[in-house]
UniProtKB/TrEMBL annotation:
Keywords: DNA-binding, Transcription, Transcription regulation. Transmembrane segments: none annotated. One of its GO terms (molecular function) is DNA binding. Residues 36-55 bind DNA. This is TetR/AcrR family transcriptional regulator. InterPro entries: Homeodomain-like_sf (IPR009057), HTH_TetR (IPR001647), Tet_transcr_reg_TetR-rel_C_sf (IPR036271). Residues 13-73 form the HTH tetR-type domain. It comes from Streptomyces apricus. Gene3D superfamilies: Tetracycline Repressor, domain 2. It holds the Pfam family TetR_N.
């Protein structure tokens, strides 16, 4: 979806930005279904007509919210990768960026897992958007882990994502520092396992 502009200036409308920022804050902290258009319009201090000039429906607004979250996470991962030339340290940096989020003020879990819980129909556009984001993240993590060893990385990538999902879910329910430490310990376990030589079976019969 391309941002609409006003006044021919070529810049994103201030009203659109305000609407999206307001929706992002409320959707993330309170959920999506429970928040109506009237609430968003009131807090963004715009009219309904203004909202519908930028977003054809509430669903479009939700998709814009998730697109913004997706871009933020992609930027976070790219910055973590760029912080080191060591494949192992790049994986650690991505893991630390996740725990930084878990320990941040106002953390309410993963925006995508939260959205999937509210839109469980696999055919729904919002659910499809969640799946696309998660596939990108799994592919990215798996590719990173593939650089740490000659072993195949598919299982390691799935393991990382599973640990991440658990940490994101538990991080807003329990001590975020403890959850973060547990997650980082798990990531170290994944990296360590990739340094252990694979055992080969001995098929020679014993006399």
């Amino acid at each position: 979806m391309s941002p609409r502009t006003e006044g021919g200036s070529g810049t994103v409308s201030e009203a659109r930005t305000r609407l999206l920022n307001t929706a992002t804050r409320i959707f993330y902290t309170e959920g999506i279904h429970s928040v109506g258009i009237d609430r968003i319009v009131a807090e963004a201090q715009v009219t309904r007509a203004t909202l519908y000039r930028h977003f054809a429906s509430k669903e479009d607004l939700i998709l814009a919210y998730l697109a913004q979250a997706d871009q933020a996470i992609r930027g976070q991962v790219a910055a973590a990768q760029a912080s080191s030339s060591s494949p192992n340290d790049q994986v650690r940096a991505v893991a630390r960026s996740i725990t930084d989020g878990i320990q941040s003020t106002g953390f309410r879990g993963c925006a995508f897992l939260n959205a999937a819980a509210e839109y469980s129909d696999p055919a729904h556009p919002i659910h499809q958007t969640v799946l696309a984001h998660r596939q990108w993240f799994l592919t990215t993590v798996t590719d990173m882990l593939a650089q740490t060893s000659e072993k195949t990385a598919d299982a390691a990538g799935r393991h990382f994502v599973m640990l991440r999902d658990g940490a994101m879910s538990a991080g807003c329910l329990f001590d975020p520092k403890l959850i973060s430490d547990t997650f980082l310990h798990g990531v170290e376990g994944i990296l360590k396992a990739r340094t252990i030589p694979e055992l080969t079976s001995n098929t020679t019969a014993t006399p």
